[in-house]
Amino acid sequence: MASMETAAEHERILREIESTDTNCIGPTLRSVYDGQEHGLFMEKLDVRIRNHDREIEKMCNHHFQGFVDSITELLKVRGEAQKLKSQVIETNGRLQDDGKMLISSMEELKQCRVQQRNIATTIDKLTHCLPVLEMYSKLQEEMKAKRYYPALRILENLERTCLPRAGQYRFCSIMAENIPKLRTQIRDTAMMQLRDFLESIRKHSDKIGETAIKQAQVQRSLDSSVSTQPRIMTGRRSRKEAAAAGVGTDSNTHGGSPVSEQDSGILDVEDEEEDEEVPGAQDLVDFSPVYRCLHIYTVLGLRDVFENYYRKQRRKQARLVLQPHSNMHETLEGYSRYFNQIVGFFVVEDHILHTTQGLVNRAYVEELWELALSKIVAALRTHSSYCNDPDLVLDLKNLIVLFADTLQGFGFPVSQLFDMLLEMREQYGEILLKRWNITFRQVLDQDNYSPIPVSSEEEYRLYTSQFPLQDPELEKLPFPKKLPFSEFVPKVYCQLKEFIYACLKYSEDLHLSSTEVDDMIRKSTNLLLTRTLSHCLQYAIKKKNVGLAELVQVIINTTHLEQSCHFLEEFISNITNVPPDTVNATKLYGTSTFKDARHAAEAEIYTSLNTKIDQFLQLADYNWVAVVQGGGTLAASDYLIDLMAFLKSTFTVFTNLPGNVAQTACMSACKHISTSLMQLLLDPDIRQISIGALHQFHADVKECESFARAGPVAGFQGDTLLLAFSDLRQLLDLFTQWDWSTYLADYGKPTCRYLRVNPHTALALLEKMREMSRKNNVFAQLRKTDRDRQKLIDTIIKQLRNLIAQHHT
C-alpha cells in the first residue's frame, strides 16, 4: 500500500516538473529529497527522460528531409550572391574614376566665385564712400550758410544711411564726432521757438474761440435761411480736405529741402481753402515756429521728446482752461467766456492735428477731448443746477448748442453734450412745472367760478379765440349771453399752449427729429397735465369753503377742458409737423386728467351733499313714545320739509351738469336719506318705539317719496328714484298695517310683498315696540287688549327668530 502511494506521489511530482516554470521547480525537488525514496524517484525520472528522447527522435526523423532540402537551396543562393558582389565592386570603381574629374572642375568654379564676390564688395564700398565724402562737403557748405534745416537733412542721411553703409573708416569716425555738436546747437534754438509758440497760443485761445463761435453762428444762420430742417454739420469735410493739403505739404518737406522761412506757407494754403467754413486760428496765431521745431526735432531724432513736451504743456494749459470760475453760473457771460477758451484751445489742437504729421495724433486729441468733455459736462451739471430761471436755462442751452455745433464742425464728437442737454431738459421741465404750478394756482384762486357773461360779438370772438368753444346753439342766442364755463377755462388752455411753446423753444437746434421733438413735448405736457394741473385742480376742489355751486362749475369747466384735449393734440401736431395718428406717438393724458378732476369734484359734491343732508337730519326730533293720533293726515316733520326744499333748489343748479352726474347725485342723496332714516330707526340708543312714532316716520317717508316722484332731476325712468326708499317703505307698511302673516308666509319668495324687509331689521324694531308695550302694561295690567297685543308681539318675535335660525342653518 505504501509503495503505491509513493509511486503516485512520484508521478504527481513528475507531472508538476513538466508543467511548472523552471523558476518555481525548487519546492518540488525539495519534496523529493525530503522523502526516503529518492533513488526510486531517480529511476522513474530516467525512464521519463528516455521516453521523451524517443519522442524527440521520432519528431526529428519526421522533419529531417525538409531540413536537407533547405540547406541545398541555401548553397545555390550563395553562388549567385558572390556574382552580385563582384559586379557592385566593378561599378564602384568606374564611378570613382569619373568623380575625380568633376571634383576638379568644382574647385576651379569655387575659386572664380570667391574672386567675383571680392570684386563686387570692393565696388560696393567705393560706391558708399564716395557719396559720404560728397555729402560731408555739402554739409560744410550748408553750415557756413546757416541753412540748418538742409544741414539737418544731410546729417540725417549721413548718420542713418551713408555712414553705416560706408563702414568703419577713420574719416567716417571724424564725421560722426562732429555731428552731435551741430545737432545740440540746432536743438536749443528749436526749443526756444517752441516755448514762444506755446505762450502765444495761450494768450490767443480766448479770442480764437470767440471768432470760431461767431463764424459758426453766422454759418448756422445761413443754413437756417436755406432750409428749415435741422442743420447737419458738413464743415468736417472741408477741414479734412484742407488737412490733406497741409499734410501733403509736410510730406514734401521730408522728401525735398524746404527752408524754415517757408514753413508758414501751409497756413496760407489753408487760409484760401477755409476762409468761410472754419475759424481762422492762423489769422491770430503764427504756427510757423511749431512747424520749424517739429521738422528740426524730427531730423534730430528727438520727435518723441518734442511731442511729449508739447503734449505735456498743452495738457497743463487744458487743465487751466477747463477749470470754471466759481461764479460762472451767475451770468450768461461767465458761461460764454468758459466756452470761448475751450473752443480756442481745441481749434488750435485741431489745426495742429491736420497740419502736422503726428505731433498730435487722433488718439491724443480724442483722449484730451474725452477728458475735457467729462469736465465740461460735470461743470455744467453742477453750475446749471443752481439756476431756477427758465429763461436763463434756455439761453444757456442755446449757448451750449452753439458751442457743440462749433466743435462738431471740427470733427469732435459732442453727443455727450446733447445728452446732457436732454438731461437739462428734465431740469428745465421741472422749473417750468414749478412756474406753471404757481400760475395755475393763481388762475384758480382768482376765478369766480361763474359762467362768463358776454355782451358783444367782439367779446365773444375774443373768448372763442382763446378757447376752442364749439356750441352752435350758444352762437344762435342773442347778446347778452353767458358762456358755460368760467374764466379759468380759457386761461388754463392758453397757459397749456404757452407751456408747449416753452418746451418747443428748448427742443430747437438739438438735432432731434420731428418725431423726437413731438414725443418730448407730449411727455412734458403730460407731466404738466397729470402732475401740476391735476394737483392744482385737486387743491381747488379740496380746499375749505368750496360750495356746491363752485363744485358744479368745476365739473362744467373740466368737461370743456376735456373736450378741448384733441385740439391740444392738433396744436402739438401742427407745430411739430408730426401727424397725431403716427405709430408709437405719445398720447396726451389730458382726458384722464380732467376726468379724474371731474370725478373728484363729483365725489366732493356727493360728500358735501351728504354732509348737508346729515346737518338737516341732526335736527330731527321724533317723539318715539308718541301715541296714535286719531283723525286727519299727519304732516311731515319740519326738518324734512326744509331738507326737501334745499334739495330742490340744489338740483336746480345741477341743470348744467352732465345728466349722469346730476342723476348720480340725486340717487346718492336719496339713498343717503333712506339709509340715515333706517339707521335712525335702528339706533341702539333708542330702546322704545311706539306705533304713533312709526306713523310720524311713515309721513316723513311719504314726503321723501313725493320728492322722488316729482323728478327733481330729469333722466330717471319711471319710479327708479323711488327704489331708494323701498326698504323703508316696505318696513313701515309691514308695521303700520301689521301684516305679519303675509310676511311670514311669503318670506323668501320672489313675489313676496315685503321682499326688501330683512328679518333682523324687523326683529330689532319689533323688540323696541315690545319694550314700549311692556312699559305701558306696567300701568295697565288689567287691560285685556294690551295683554293680547303683548302676547302677539312675543309670538311674532319668536316666529322671526325661528325664521332667522332656519335660514341661517
UniProtKB/TrEMBL annotation:
Region annotation (Disordered) ranges: 213-264
Residue ranges annotated for the Exocyst complex component EXOC6/Sec15 N-terminal domain, each copy included: 44-213
Pfam families membership: EXOC6_Sec15_N (PF20651), Sec15_C (PF04091)
Keyword annotations from UniProtKB, A to Z: Exocytosis, Transport
Domain Exocyst complex subunit EXOC6/Sec15 C-terminal: 416-768
Bias kind Polar residues: ranges: 214-231, 249-263
Record-level GO BP terms: Golgi to plasma membrane transport; intracellular protein transport; vesicle tethering involved in exocytosis
GO cellular component terms, semicolon-separated: exocyst; plasma membrane
UniProt function note: Component of the exocyst complex involved in the docking of exocytic vesicles with fusion sites on the plasma membrane.
PANTHER family linked: EXOCYST COMPLEX COMPONENT 6B, SEC15
Family named by the database record: Belongs to the SEC15 family.
The protein's name in its UniProt record: Exocyst complex component
Organism: Monopterus albus (Swamp eel)
